[in-house]
Automatic annotation (TrEMBL):
PROSITE patterns: ABC_TRANSPORTER_1, ABC_TRANSPORTER_2. GO terms for molecular function: ATP binding; ATP hydrolysis activity. This is Ribose transport system ATP-binding protein. The lineage of its organism: Bacteria, Pseudomonadati, Pseudomonadota, Alphaproteobacteria, Hyphomicrobiales. It is a peripheral membrane protein. It comes from the Bacteria. One of its GO terms (cellular component) is plasma membrane. Residues 9-244, 254-496 form the ABC transporter domain. Keywords: ATP-binding, Cell membrane, Membrane, Nucleotide-binding, Repeat, Sugar transport, Translocase, Transport. Pfam families: ABC_tran. InterPro entries: AAA+_ATPase, ABC_carbohydrate_import_ATPase, ABC_transporter-like_ATP-bd, ABC_transporter-like_CS, P-loop_NTPase. The keyword Ribonucleoprotein does not apply. PANTHER family: CARBOHYDRATE TRANSPORT ATP-BINDING PROTEIN MG119-RELATED, D-ALLOSE IMPORT ATP-BINDING PROTEIN ALSA-RELATED. Belongs to the ABC transporter superfamily.
């Protein structure tokens, strides 16, 4: 009979309360050497709270933990790191004015003769970047890197810890298929080296590729455990939401022949893309796909005035509306829901009402006099309209990722736009919130609003789009009709 090895990490009856509100309800969890355990659940299920307790960011209200057979109760993240546990956060925590190498080794600088050994630091950081397929010099600053590349730097940072247990919280949320596969190869190597991994993701298809076991949480409790990773997605989702699942993607209304929005021969002043042209019909959902670095985000930022262009024009209802600034684009009825809702979409320390009001000052203060009552009333109507789970007085940073995204949507859709650009609209969002956002897209389409969707999730862009523009290395590789678009045809163009 094979010997059953003891787990390297054990949690027993871990509870967490904030006053009368209980967040975790007696969590039991074991992680063994060389296994990947997927920790799944909707936003607010308690996954991040469990992770933060393991990594010393949060202290549990009760319960116990053991690490490699000894009692374990880290008082802070440094104690956890020194014990051999590392966490790759969902939210980026890089210092933009430091170099990649400095970010990778911040707080634990390689030293020689009492001084920082910069050459050794840059060499070791460069090795990790190359392992992840990131073609960037370790001595360049983080400032200006795309969200996907920043995520890879975060991963490189964790890989240098030589940790015996890693918690990966949404590590592929900003990555495309090629970058995700490189990460999975690193995970396979770590697993072979005996490293235990807790893997948190809302991309459920990848769980079948990477996980050895699956633990499902709901409302702060562990509700189910699967002893294998190859479990049908529908089964996983139904255990997450506690009910049978209907269809993931809604039915979209047919699109007419009227062209509302046109991009003609557009070229980036930042050399991110060249000569892009397409038309979007009234009520059409137009997808943009491609690998990370293909120029997708840069394209939609240029369309909405956030990035400069060197050539080309943009037309709305036949009128030239080529923007010189985001404000000009907004005034023309073209709005962008950006890929990073925390840094670019919200003022986190301000209330939901204030965030919605900031984008709608004409409606809430037509006579230039700002009234808190008017803002609260306007916001309350839109909180209800878009199904935001929260009160207007709550700060945005107190909400789950799904509800934060709904607030960003609410503030821009309340402006009654003609074109809505959604960059990674469901990044890091659970299946329930995704469904709500897809329903909002259908509603916009039915009203004749043009919707442009950028997504690294190929299944998503295929599921919601009437047509798909595929980008490859900053150029337009092709446009596919819904009938001809599938994962193979999109990837063939994306890698052409």
């Amino acid at each position: 009979m094979a010997e059953v090895k003891s787990p390297i990490l054990s949690l027993r009856q871990i509870k967490k309360s904030y006053g009368p509100l209980q967040i975790l309800h007696g969590i039991d969890l074991d992680i063994h050497e060389g296994e990947v355990v997927a920790l799944l659940g909707e936003n607010g299920a308690g996954k991040s709270t469990v992770s933060n307790i393991i990594c010393g960011t949060i202290r549990p209200s009760s319960g116990s933990m053991t690490w490699r057979g000894a009692e374990y109760a880290p008082a802070n993240p440094r104690e956890a790191i020194d014990s051999g546990l590392g966490l790759i956060h969902q939210e980026l925590r890089l210092l933009p004015h430091l170099t990649i190498a400095e970010n990778v080794f911040v707080g634990r600088w390689p030293k020689s003769r009492g001084q920082i050994d910069r050459k050794a630091m840059e060499r070791k950081a460069q090795e990790q970047l190359e392992r992840l397929g990131l073609d960037l010099p370790a001595n360049r600053k983080v400032e200006g890197l795309s969200t996907a590349n920043q995520q890879l730097v975060e991963i490189a940072k964790a890989l240098t810890l030589n940790a015996r247990l890693l918690i990966l919280d949404e590590p592929t949320a900003a990555l495309g298929d090629a970058e995700t596969e490189l990460l999975f190869k690193q995970i396979d190597r770590l697993r072979a080296d005996g490293v235990g991994i807790i893997y948190i993701s809302h991309r459920l298809e990848e769980i079948r590729r990477i996980a050895d076991r699956i633990v499902v949480m709901r409302d702060g409790a562990k509700v189910q455990e699967f002893d294998k990773g190859d479990v049908p997605v529908r089964t996983i989702v139904e255990s997450m939401v506690g009910r049978e699942l209907g269809r993931m993607f809604p039915h979209f209304p047919p699109v007419g022949d009227d062209v509302t929005f046109e991009v003609k021969d557009l070229t980036s002043a930042l050399d991110a893309f060249h000569d892009v042209s397409f038309k979007v019909h009234k009520g059409e959902v137009f997808g943009i796909a491609g690998l990370v670095g293909a120029g997708r985000t840069e394209l939609v930022r240029a369309i909405t005035g956030a990035d400069p262009i060197s050539a080309g024009s943009i037309y709305l209802d036949g009128k030239d509306v080529t923007p010189r600034s985001p404000g000009q684009s907004i005034r023309n009825g073209i709005v962008l829901v950006p890929e990073d809702r925390k840094l670019q979409g919200l003022v986190l320390e301000h209330s939901i009402s204030e965030n919605i009001g900031y984008a709608n000052m004409k409606a809430v203060a037509p006579k230039k006099w700002v009234s808190k009552k008017a803002i609260d009333s306007f916001a309350a109507a839109n909180i209800h309209r878009f199904g935001v789970k929260g009160q207007g007085h709550q700060n945005a940073d107190e909400m789950s990722g799904g509800n934060q995204q709904k607030v960003v949507l609410a503030k821009w859709l309340a402006t009654d736009p003609k074109v809505v650009v959604l960059d990674e609209p469901t990044r890091g969002i659970d299946v329930g919130a995704r469904s709500s956002i897809y329903d909002i897209i259908v509603e916009l389409s039915a009203k004749g609003i043009c919707v442009i969707v950028v997504s690294s999730d190929l299944e998503e862009v295929l599921g919601v789009s009437n047509r798909i523009l595929v980008m490859a290395e900053g150029r337009q590789a092709g446009i596919l009709d819904r009938a001809n678009a599938n994962d193979v045809s999109v990837m063939e163009l994306a890698t052409s």
